[in-house]
Amino acid sequence: MAFPSFNGGFFQVTALSFSPSVVAVGETATFSITIKNVSGKSITKCYVDQSGRYPSTNYQYGGSFPSQFLYGGGGSSGFDLKTISWANNASHTFTGTVSFAEGYYHLDTSNYVLDPAQTYIHIGVVTNATFSDGGNYDNLYIRPDGSYLRILSARDNPKVTLEIERTPNDEAVAVKTTAKLTADCATSVLTAHNYTIKLTATNAHNPALPTDGAITFNATISNLITGITNSTSAVTATFSASTDWYFLLTVSNGYETTNAYGSIPRAFANVHLAGLTTGGVAFGKFSGSTQGNPLFECEFPAYFNAGIASHEYHDGDVVTINGGTFMGYVTGSSKSIHFVIPLWKSLERINSATLTQFKANIANNGGYAITSGSVSGGSNYLVSSVTRSVTIDKVRNVLEVYLTRSSAWDLTNNDALTVRNDAISIRLNE
Hints:
The protein has 430 residues and is mainly beta. It has two helices and 29 strands. Helices cover 3% and strands 45% of the residues. The strands form seven sheets. Strands 21, 22, 23, 24, 25, 26, 27, 28 and 29 form a nine-stranded antiparallel beta sheet that branches. Strands 4, 5, 6, 8 and 9 form a five-stranded antiparallel beta sheet that branches.
């Protein structure tokens, strides 16, 4: 944007800023201006002063903002020139604090934004040099037209609040919105000052910077002033239940801005009771139970440290099997019998087992292990001449039984055998 010009053209503005760039009467702003000497003269003394005017209701030329010297001034005359080295085409930067306070004459507050045609910040440069027009000074008038500065007769001081929740429950993707706009001015004044509304949302973990774009906000400034309570129509967009969401509601007219933040957490539950008369529970999710159809659901890997009573064997359990056939083989020069007993419950907790009863007929193509033929009720293998052991195979969930004696069984070595069980009992230990 173009810099404002000095009336005589003996100086040029090369940098100009106010901070803040929007102020209200009664406030102050820091001020910085860089001025280039293009007078063709070398300046060795000067003063630079700043003053201003505002529209007034009781004085046609307006009221005066407090003035100050940015350089020089004061002294015996009140306007003493101060030594400076300011060559032609050289620049100097001057800074100060500008006070936009109402003076003797009353401020005209009929306009929210002061009319730049009746308002200005004046910068005067008075030197010890004589310029081509015979004078030794030049004047600059900075109009607060928005290029560098806007001056408000008074602030509205708007304030907005926002609350957003998932609806109709914590796992929903729809939301309900509560919001309200208040200010230090009358409702009619606030409505007339051309405020607009913007709502943005993000699922990134940075609530100060929503970047995912604008969300349609179905409400007017008048609606916000009245107040919106638990509205499902103000925001009709939906928001994934799998992530957190952050919202920024901005109300602004370009001069004054107010923000409010809101958030909704991701839909998550460690434990959720269905809330139905027929029950239902879920772990790591919300229950999918319906009335009359209760469910036990779990999204976590399950570790039952005490076991599942109906699906695991526990310390001291005795397994008794009557009848049936087990398969095995004979080895060790026909002195060792090995067969396998599969079980239906988990052996995960079991580390040892002991045979407490065993009657069976064991045979292969070599004959019967300890008899010449089949014995009704089976032969008893829990005798002193037979060494017995049981190992646990948790992967296959089986018991491996070993029967060994010093003399050979009447069986063919390294051949398969059958164990025609009558009764076997095994005590299990953790």
